[in-house]
Amino acid sequence: MNKKLALVLSIMSISLCAAAQLKTSASEIDGVWIPIRQELGGTEFPPEGFAKHKLVINDTSFTYLSENTEKGALKFNGHKLDIYGREGINKGRHFATIYKYEKGLLTICYNLQGDSYPETFETEGKSNFFISVFKKEEPK
Length: 140
Prior knowledge:
By secondary structure, this protein is of the alpha+beta class. It has a single domain, classed as Lipocalin (Beta Barrel). Mean pLDDT is 85; it is low at 1-24. 19% of the residues lie in helices and 45% in strands. The chain has an 8-stranded antiparallel β-barrel. It has one helix at residues 2-28; strands spanning 31-40, 43-44, 54-58, 61-65, 69-77, 80-87, 94-102, 105-111, 129-136.
């Protein structure tokens, strides 16, 4: 009986630690982000095409400011991220993404079809895969 209890407590402890790490990851990316690189299907976009864009993440919601304003919800699951458009041209759409936050950069790889998560941060030969790399905006 004690072995079973210890196993259950160990599993609960690991689950709680993992949940805490997921929340930390999500809160780390709260803020205002500026795109510094974008690529679709292996083709990189020129920086002047997104120079005035901003991504604002606040917990489980986002706003993307560009020529249009997009708003929606975020659902984190490890380093997978589901993006749900609620306002703007992507209203009603779902994007399956993976993300990483390394060395001060946030990289998001989107499957624009939303039917499966990308497995890597590569878009070459994948016409529906889009990558955006962001740096955090410095407070003024």
